[in-house]
């Protein structure tokens, strides 16, 4: 028996209000696509099949080194986080799985599984944490101030490896089949670490984790140009990430977080190169204007998001073999996190649907004929298509809301949990 | 009577060990400079006269949104912070003043002045804070989550203005004559704020603060491209900063924080333009590789620091009229903050001394003759000069240490305060 | 009597093929907008009234310092350039004016005016050129290698000023009322020029030009971060540009070229600030991914272009008083320049139409209520609207083509001029 | 018998003037280093052994897409270019080899070898060119406008491969043992090329070149983020470059051009990673502030150059096995190219000498003890050392000039060739 957090009648009632407009838009778009030889139902079906995981930490309000401004009803533990995740999926129908972060989300695995099942949720990739100290945890007596998997001291490295093995063990108990390893190791000053030796130490540690992976598991390593380390990071870009995946072996893949690159970098080309190398493991979706801003996916440069999906569709079978993981990884500093996650999942499906609309036969002809004008317009035409009604159709067919944010607001969920969950005071920088 | 934190015999003893090498280096440099027509004593004198303020918050360990790793002996209040600042000045002899941050440093003004006097310290520009909430402060009942001086709600703006007036009042009581206003206002999404209206609200608030400035005070506004706001900030660059200073009036000046610019920006040219506009108010010194990294001044790109000082020297009398304020503003995440501040003050004096060595008559001739090769070499030659012994000489003459970091380590100060000041647990992101 | 380059029957015939689809799309969009309380005809009318100038140099193939690859039928002089511009306007109906570049476009003014009239074209802002040498021009005996308006040598500065006065005189003869001054002055090495003195020289020269402006003329100065100078440029950003416009007087305004900024810079905020300062003079439209790439407007980041227009619409009456100039300024290296200009003018109108669709009453409410989610979605909803049929409607009503690029290809114009205009051999870098 | 371009008496005479100062500086530095346990003669010897190649195209004045401003006495062919290269080496004694660019430098190989021998020069890596069209060359009938090695058309790819094979053959005839392949392939618009397929075509072509490499040859591929292609380049970063070297085989290595990276990228870490992967092939040295500015090496960020050499020294034996190639690759737009190349070679040796001065035993201890302050200072101390007199000593011992630029100016070489080589008129963008 399930225990969905939003009363279905709220969704029905909100949908009813919007159905006339929605039906008209969907019909008009269907006709327009038909004139281009595209059956709208095919797109709807593909969209329904496309899902993305939400991070457990994403339902809490994030912050910066300067401050964190929590909102009402912040979840106080993994069980409440799962409730919030269930709201997102109930309304949006595209986020059936949750990615956990240990140590924060550690609890009794059986209870976790029961809770998830009751909410129709499952668990995606596990995330370990060795970029913070937890002085009260008896398993973490040593500090990560100067690194973890690449630390100069073998004892710290061992502690960090052990933590990852624990996370894998926990993940097995709840049905996860992957671990994402992102670490804060690096340096703030030229000379602080030996760039070569610290990388060798990292590899040695990563190999110890890799060696303990269950048969059906994958390990995702994640590159990040800077922050929290400000002169060098141990996995600074996809080149190093690729080297790592090559050194580790066939179960190791590279994770691409959209916000972790140098200014101006062509991210969709990195995606293409990782597909070529058969090492694309998946994505952490978000958007950014300056650095690793961790803003809502698609909110700053929606065309860039579309171009990433264009590469994925273009790759065709090669991608299917890779089966990349999709996860949102954002920091919600000024919005209701539930709303941001609903919206972002929608933007991801939007980019996916638009990429499906690209006329690939025509595109290839333009490319082979050196016709950059028409090739460019071929992509732009797909991007310009307003697929909002396709996304809504996919949600409706799965029991979700036409306008999930409106339905969420109508439900009064936030007000309810604001009462049930006493306010959390102050707090410094958020964890994202 | 003063109460210096380091036993003078420690300095004397450390200096004694190093004096032979130092004397030889100083003599050799003196001869080399003499061959170029420069009297080394002139440079030493100028260096002795050049000072820079340290920020009270700089003596605590900083952090990022991911974590903060405090070190032993963290100061627990403004009085202990002043002790640490006194160590820096006693050894380095270039940082006689401290810049306070309210609310953290608020205490009885008379006690503060006494303490400072006993340590031979004075107070530089005051810093207000409206980028964090202080829910326990009865004067701050309203949240700054969505802005302060530019907030949509007039009541929040008024609260923020009042806070600044309080800071000025407090500053007057301890002998400060300037206030630096940096705020976190801005937006994370296109559309979140109206760029024009929010700027007008900011100006209205800033004018209210300006109107309350004592006769002999200056107000410094500070631009910052991003963080904590990630789509727009209210004072995003020097252009907006200039507009503000123009709107406010003759006591308003622009502060340049070296880390607050877009990638690749020519900062020394901004300095030159602000001198032209007679609105250069001063500096927040630090260094950075990626964003607003707040690393130790001169640690990443020492030539850039030199070029900033080259503009200051070049400006000559025009600069004297402006009398810009110099302050270090860094985040010390992995070093002992006292050591970083000693070193950074030294790097600032180094750049200043090197800039003094530029042969300005020759430079002007090269410039007017369109000889970029020799003009470029003219600067490089000054920059290449190892002025370490000049800096040491200036310190010695004022009672400081030849090698202040070595003397600091020899003094055992950190070990001592680590015992006196019980460890502060955990903590999230640091405040910088 | 006019002499339009494309046979109207080509347009009619191409339109006929597309009219069914277009009518269906336009009707569906009209209904959708009506549900939101927007009358589609109002938008169509506004779009018809919105025009943008094309640059005479834009109809030739551009290049880079590495190579230029001309295409067939390159125009060999201003008269042929005007023919090409007429094609763009005949099909797209949004580019009735041409911006000239002197010395290249200098010819008999009366003949120029006649030619333009016969093509239903007029002349926009004039562009002077002091970033290249023209050794065969008796009026340009001195080299601009080391600068023009800011050159160390007064004789060079005078030559550059005289050139600008000539351009104004020529512009008066053909009905222009503005001059755009962009120069390549700057330096490649720290020290090469004195940043302050060279700026003062620039201002002196600019004042001499300003003093010669006819009563009804405006002068636009243009900032650019780098290239061709690689260490400093004389007008490096909007802050310096603002200083210049303030120094010169009420007829001086700042021109914003979208490609001339540092990485990550928020351009729409600069637009907003220049509106506040009443100094926004206009735009050079283009798009870019890395530096001043001069790619087709809207081809890389269409949302950014939309956000610029969002600021313009938001400014309302304040903008009307400024009456900013709109010009495309791009380098067409791999496309047929005519096609790129048709497409780009269309993208500009698209962004304008989308910005008109923003529900400004709702937006203001969201802003004042600190509801970043809905404010952000309010803009995104307008941006997502596929206004293609609105743009087509505006063209049709003015006699243009539903799909102007298709009609252009159907017309065979490029093949025709390829025969009439013998191929230009080789050539080094292009001028943009 | 050799035929050196500068009369040795000029060097002797200039050296004589400077010898007193030089001797004093060298002696003082020797004493200072001795106090640190370093024998200055060891450093001098190492510096004498360190050489760097100059590019044949570097002795001509470069330019931008906007203009090129040639200077007096521009070399009109490869023989005159060799004369200029000989001047650089005669004075600076660090540039005994020249890197040629085909087709420009193609001539009778035997004559070339004779000429080089008479000037005591040899030949470094060859450079092919498929980023420009040469319509008059019967071997290049097809255009590279839309690519070369990755072109959609197999015939163009074959032409480009054939050109590279020709270059190798020519290189063999003159004693070269390496080819550097940099191409301009890429795209200006999303969609223009299929990122995956075009890379596969590139690899196929590269393999054809690789297959034809003589036994003792190496192939260097070079990455570049952008320009002349502005949306994607085929070898955009070191990650792709690494993939290529891995796909090609053991004779394939990655070349690092310091100017070809995204803003803020940590280049020294890329060097470290390529050493780890055993694929570092060598360097193209230059400096930059904004994009691929191609400014004089060390003129903008000398500390960054030092940090690159620090990695090379740190790598020790691993580097010796790689034996990386060193070449200057700059564009001299406003300086006398001979002077810029002399200065740049000097800056490279300076960074090398400074890197040799790092106390590596101490550094390792600081790193292992997590002492970032002292580790950072350890590097800075080496960097601060003014090794000018070491560089002069190395030159003197090999017959060069104490101040090679001064000696060059004293020689009157430029004036002489300005008469012998009639001025080249105009010219568009330069080739760099």
UniProtKB/TrEMBL annotation, chains A, B, C, D:
<dbReference type="InterPro" id="IPR013451">
    <property type="entry name" value="L_rhamnose_iso"/>
</dbReference>
<keyword id="KW-0464">Manganese</keyword>
<dbReference type="GO" id="GO:0046872">
    <property type="term" value="F:metal ion binding"/>
</dbReference>
<dbReference type="GO" id="GO:0016853">
    <property type="term" value="F:isomerase activity"/>
</dbReference>
<dbReference type="InterPro" id="IPR036237">
    <property type="entry name" value="Xyl_isomerase-like_sf"/>
</dbReference>
<keyword id="KW-0479">Metal-binding</keyword>
<dbReference type="InterPro" id="IPR050337">
    <property type="entry name" value="L-rhamnose_isomerase"/>
</dbReference>
<keyword id="KW-0413">Isomerase</keyword>
<protein>
    <submittedName>
        <fullName>Putative sugar isomerase protein</fullName>
    </submittedName>
</protein>
